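Standup notes, protein team

Yesterday: finished cleaning the Paenibacillus physcomitrellae set.
Today: Probable nicotinate-nucleotide adenylyltransferase structure.
Blockers: none.

Input for Probable nicotinate-nucleotide adenylyltransferase:
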Amino acid sequence: MGGAFDPIHTGHLLAAEAARDQYELEEVWFMPSHQPPHKAKAGVSGEQRLEMVKAAIQSNPAFQPLDIELRRGGISYTVDTMKQLLAEHPAYEFYFIIGADMVNYLPKWEGIDELVQMITFIGLQRPGSMLELDSLPEFIQDGVVLAEMPLVDISSSLIRSRLRQGKSIRYLVPDAVYDLMIRSGAYGIHP
Ligand SMILES: Nc1ncnc2c1ncn2[C@@H]1O[C@H](COP(=O)(O)OP(=O)(O)OP(=O)(O)O)[C@@H](O)[C@H]1O
Ligand SMILES: O=C(O)c1ccc[n+]([C@@H]2O[C@H](COP(=O)([O-])O)[C@@H](O)[C@H]2O)c1
Protein backbone atom coordinates (compact mmCIF):
# COMPACT_ATOMS: atom_id res chain seq x y z
CA MET A 1 0.00 0.00 0.00
CA GLY A 2 1.54 3.26 -1.13
CA GLY A 3 0.64 6.74 -0.04
CA ALA A 4 1.87 10.07 1.14
CA PHE A 5 0.77 9.15 4.69
CA ASP A 6 0.80 12.85 5.64
CA PRO A 7 -0.24 11.66 8.21
CA ILE A 8 -1.24 7.97 8.24
CA HIS A 9 -4.80 7.65 9.62
CA THR A 10 -7.45 5.14 10.66
CA GLY A 11 -8.86 4.97 7.09
CA HIS A 12 -5.52 3.65 5.80
CA LEU A 13 -5.37 1.00 8.52
CA LEU A 14 -8.94 -0.18 7.95
CA ALA A 15 -8.35 -0.37 4.19
CA ALA A 16 -5.16 -2.38 4.67
CA GLU A 17 -6.79 -4.76 7.13
CA ALA A 18 -9.85 -5.25 4.89
CA ALA A 19 -7.59 -6.13 1.95
CA ARG A 20 -5.40 -8.42 4.07
CA ASP A 21 -8.39 -10.24 5.50
CA GLN A 22 -10.40 -10.64 2.28
CA TYR A 23 -7.45 -11.66 0.06
CA GLU A 24 -5.55 -13.62 2.75
CA LEU A 25 -2.44 -11.52 2.26
CA GLU A 26 0.55 -12.68 4.26
CA GLU A 27 1.77 -9.14 4.84
CA VAL A 28 0.88 -5.56 3.98
CA TRP A 29 3.82 -3.28 3.27
CA PHE A 30 3.23 0.43 3.85
CA MET A 31 5.33 2.54 1.47
CA PRO A 32 5.47 6.30 2.03
CA SER A 33 6.06 8.03 -1.31
CA HIS A 34 8.92 10.44 -1.89
CA GLN A 35 7.24 12.74 -4.43
CA PRO A 36 3.67 11.60 -5.23
CA PRO A 37 3.08 11.51 -9.02
CA HIS A 38 -0.17 13.50 -9.04
CA LYS A 39 -0.22 15.74 -6.02
CA ALA A 40 1.93 18.21 -4.13
CA LYS A 41 4.85 16.93 -2.11
CA ALA A 42 4.02 16.31 1.56
CA GLY A 43 4.59 19.16 3.99
CA VAL A 44 6.52 16.99 6.45
CA SER A 45 9.66 15.01 5.72
CA GLY A 46 9.75 11.45 4.47
CA GLU A 47 11.50 10.43 7.64
CA GLN A 48 8.69 11.85 9.79
CA ARG A 49 5.99 10.20 7.65
CA LEU A 50 7.85 6.88 7.89
CA GLU A 51 8.12 7.22 11.69
CA MET A 52 4.36 7.80 11.91
CA VAL A 53 3.73 4.75 9.71
CA LYS A 54 5.94 2.66 12.00
CA ALA A 55 4.10 3.92 15.08
CA ALA A 56 0.70 3.19 13.51
CA ILE A 57 1.47 -0.41 12.54
CA GLN A 58 3.83 -1.52 15.32
CA SER A 59 1.21 -3.69 17.05
CA ASN A 60 0.37 -5.70 13.92
CA PRO A 61 2.98 -8.29 12.88
CA ALA A 62 1.39 -8.58 9.41
CA PHE A 63 1.97 -4.87 8.72
CA GLN A 64 5.48 -3.74 7.73
CA PRO A 65 6.97 -0.35 6.82
CA LEU A 66 8.94 -0.08 3.57
CA ASP A 67 11.15 2.89 2.72
CA ILE A 68 11.89 1.81 -0.87
CA GLU A 69 10.39 4.96 -2.46
CA LEU A 70 11.95 7.32 0.07
CA ARG A 71 15.37 5.77 -0.60
CA ARG A 72 14.91 5.93 -4.39
CA GLY A 73 13.93 9.61 -4.30
CA GLY A 74 12.40 11.43 -7.27
CA ILE A 75 8.79 10.91 -8.39
CA SER A 76 7.35 7.73 -6.85
CA TYR A 77 5.95 5.97 -9.90
CA THR A 78 4.45 2.67 -8.81
CA VAL A 79 5.67 0.92 -11.96
CA ASP A 80 9.29 1.63 -10.91
CA THR A 81 8.64 0.45 -7.35
CA MET A 82 7.02 -2.79 -8.48
CA LYS A 83 9.83 -3.57 -10.95
CA GLN A 84 12.28 -3.20 -8.08
CA LEU A 85 10.18 -5.28 -5.65
CA LEU A 86 9.58 -8.06 -8.18
CA ALA A 87 13.30 -8.22 -8.93
CA GLU A 88 14.03 -8.52 -5.20
CA HIS A 89 11.22 -11.04 -4.51
CA PRO A 90 10.59 -13.00 -7.71
CA ALA A 91 8.53 -15.68 -5.94
CA TYR A 92 6.04 -13.27 -4.37
CA GLU A 93 2.60 -12.41 -5.70
CA PHE A 94 2.01 -8.69 -5.25
CA TYR A 95 -1.21 -6.73 -4.78
CA PHE A 96 -1.47 -2.96 -4.55
CA ILE A 97 -4.11 -1.53 -2.20
CA ILE A 98 -5.83 1.69 -3.30
CA GLY A 99 -8.88 3.74 -2.45
CA ALA A 100 -11.67 4.46 -4.93
CA ASP A 101 -10.24 7.88 -5.83
CA MET A 102 -7.08 6.19 -7.07
CA VAL A 103 -8.92 3.36 -8.88
CA ASN A 104 -10.75 5.91 -11.04
CA TYR A 105 -7.39 7.52 -11.77
CA LEU A 106 -5.61 4.35 -12.90
CA PRO A 107 -5.78 5.12 -16.65
CA LYS A 108 -3.50 8.10 -15.98
CA TRP A 109 -0.85 6.12 -14.08
CA GLU A 110 2.62 5.91 -15.56
CA GLY A 111 3.15 2.61 -17.40
CA ILE A 112 -0.29 1.30 -16.41
CA ASP A 113 -0.33 -1.30 -19.22
CA GLU A 114 2.92 -2.75 -17.87
CA LEU A 115 1.83 -2.41 -14.24
CA VAL A 116 -1.38 -4.46 -14.63
CA GLN A 117 0.79 -7.35 -15.87
CA MET A 118 2.84 -7.22 -12.64
CA ILE A 119 0.27 -6.80 -9.88
CA THR A 120 -3.42 -6.95 -9.00
CA PHE A 121 -4.98 -3.82 -7.56
CA ILE A 122 -7.29 -4.16 -4.55
CA GLY A 123 -9.75 -1.27 -4.63
CA LEU A 124 -11.73 0.00 -1.64
CA GLN A 125 -14.81 2.20 -1.52
CA ARG A 126 -14.16 5.66 -0.17
CA PRO A 127 -16.73 8.39 0.53
CA GLY A 128 -16.74 11.05 -2.14
CA SER A 129 -15.31 8.75 -4.84
CA MET A 130 -17.58 5.97 -5.97
CA LEU A 131 -15.81 3.10 -7.71
CA GLU A 132 -16.62 3.20 -11.40
CA LEU A 133 -14.94 0.07 -12.69
CA ASP A 134 -17.24 -0.13 -15.72
CA SER A 135 -15.92 3.12 -17.09
CA LEU A 136 -12.29 1.93 -17.01
CA PRO A 137 -10.63 0.31 -20.03
CA GLU A 138 -11.14 -3.46 -19.97
CA PHE A 139 -7.44 -4.27 -19.51
CA ILE A 140 -7.50 -2.23 -16.28
CA GLN A 141 -10.84 -3.66 -15.07
CA ASP A 142 -9.27 -7.12 -15.38
CA GLY A 143 -6.45 -6.06 -13.08
CA VAL A 144 -8.65 -4.76 -10.24
CA VAL A 145 -10.44 -6.71 -7.53
CA LEU A 146 -12.57 -5.11 -4.84
CA ALA A 147 -12.58 -5.43 -1.06
CA GLU A 148 -15.27 -4.22 1.31
CA MET A 149 -14.76 -1.95 4.26
CA PRO A 150 -16.99 0.33 6.29
CA LEU A 151 -17.00 3.71 4.52
CA VAL A 152 -14.57 5.90 6.42
CA ASP A 153 -14.69 9.59 5.70
CA ILE A 154 -11.18 10.32 6.93
CA SER A 155 -8.39 11.71 4.78
CA SER A 156 -4.97 13.18 5.52
CA SER A 157 -6.20 16.50 4.13
CA LEU A 158 -9.14 16.47 6.54
CA ILE A 159 -6.69 15.93 9.40
CA ARG A 160 -4.39 18.73 8.22
CA SER A 161 -7.37 21.05 7.79
CA ARG A 162 -8.69 20.27 11.27
CA LEU A 163 -5.26 20.98 12.72
CA ARG A 164 -5.16 24.36 10.98
CA GLN A 165 -8.53 25.16 12.57
CA GLY A 166 -7.37 24.05 16.01
CA LYS A 167 -9.84 21.11 16.06
CA SER A 168 -9.17 17.74 17.66
CA ILE A 169 -7.84 14.91 15.52
CA ARG A 170 -7.76 12.38 18.35
CA TYR A 171 -8.91 8.92 17.22
CA LEU A 172 -8.77 9.93 13.56
CA VAL A 173 -5.18 8.70 13.87
CA PRO A 174 -4.03 5.92 16.20
CA ASP A 175 -2.92 7.07 19.66
CA ALA A 176 0.70 6.19 18.91
CA VAL A 177 0.64 8.49 15.86
CA TYR A 178 -1.06 11.26 17.83
CA ASP A 179 1.61 11.06 20.53
CA LEU A 180 4.36 11.13 17.92
CA MET A 181 2.80 14.13 16.17
CA ILE A 182 2.90 16.01 19.47
CA ARG A 183 6.44 14.89 20.35
CA SER A 184 7.93 15.62 16.91
CA GLY A 185 6.18 18.97 16.58
CA ALA A 186 5.76 18.12 12.88
CA TYR A 187 2.18 19.33 12.63
CA GLY A 188 2.29 22.11 15.19
CA ILE A 189 0.07 20.30 17.76
CA HIS A 190 0.62 21.01 21.41
CA PRO A 191 -0.55 18.85 24.30
N1 LIG B 1 -10.59 6.69 4.24
C1 LIG B 1 -10.08 5.92 3.28
N2 LIG B 1 -10.77 4.86 2.79
C2 LIG B 1 -10.24 4.10 1.78
N3 LIG B 1 -9.02 4.31 1.20
C3 LIG B 1 -8.30 5.35 1.65
C4 LIG B 1 -8.78 6.20 2.71
N4 LIG B 1 -7.84 7.15 2.96
C5 LIG B 1 -6.84 6.92 2.09
N5 LIG B 1 -7.10 5.85 1.30
C6 LIG B 1 -6.25 5.31 0.24
O1 LIG B 1 -4.95 5.13 0.79
C7 LIG B 1 -3.94 5.39 -0.20
C8 LIG B 1 -2.92 6.40 0.33
O2 LIG B 1 -3.62 7.59 0.61
P1 LIG B 1 -2.89 8.95 0.99
O3 LIG B 1 -1.71 8.69 1.86
O4 LIG B 1 -2.69 9.78 -0.21
O5 LIG B 1 -4.01 9.57 1.97
P2 LIG B 1 -5.21 10.56 1.68
O6 LIG B 1 -6.04 10.54 2.92
O7 LIG B 1 -5.88 10.25 0.38
O8 LIG B 1 -4.39 11.92 1.57
P3 LIG B 1 -4.82 13.39 1.10
O9 LIG B 1 -6.12 13.75 1.77
O10 LIG B 1 -3.65 14.23 1.55
O11 LIG B 1 -4.93 13.34 -0.42
C9 LIG B 1 -4.70 5.88 -1.45
O12 LIG B 1 -4.85 4.79 -2.34
C10 LIG B 1 -6.03 6.31 -0.90
O13 LIG B 1 -7.07 6.21 -1.86
O1 LIG C 1 2.59 5.57 -10.75
C1 LIG C 1 1.73 6.46 -10.92
O2 LIG C 1 1.58 7.05 -12.00
C2 LIG C 1 0.86 6.81 -9.74
C3 LIG C 1 -0.12 7.81 -9.84
C4 LIG C 1 -0.87 8.14 -8.72
C5 LIG C 1 -0.65 7.46 -7.52
N1 LIG C 1 0.28 6.49 -7.48
C6 LIG C 1 0.56 5.79 -6.20
O3 LIG C 1 -0.64 5.49 -5.54
C7 LIG C 1 -0.45 5.60 -4.13
C8 LIG C 1 -1.51 6.52 -3.54
O4 LIG C 1 -1.36 7.79 -4.13
P1 LIG C 1 -1.68 9.14 -3.32
O5 LIG C 1 -1.52 10.23 -4.34
O6 LIG C 1 -3.09 8.97 -2.83
O7 LIG C 1 -0.70 9.21 -2.19
C9 LIG C 1 0.98 6.11 -3.94
O8 LIG C 1 1.82 5.00 -3.68
C10 LIG C 1 1.34 6.71 -5.27
O9 LIG C 1 2.74 6.66 -5.57
C11 LIG C 1 1.02 6.14 -8.54
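Follow-up from PR in the comments: The mean pLDDT is 95.
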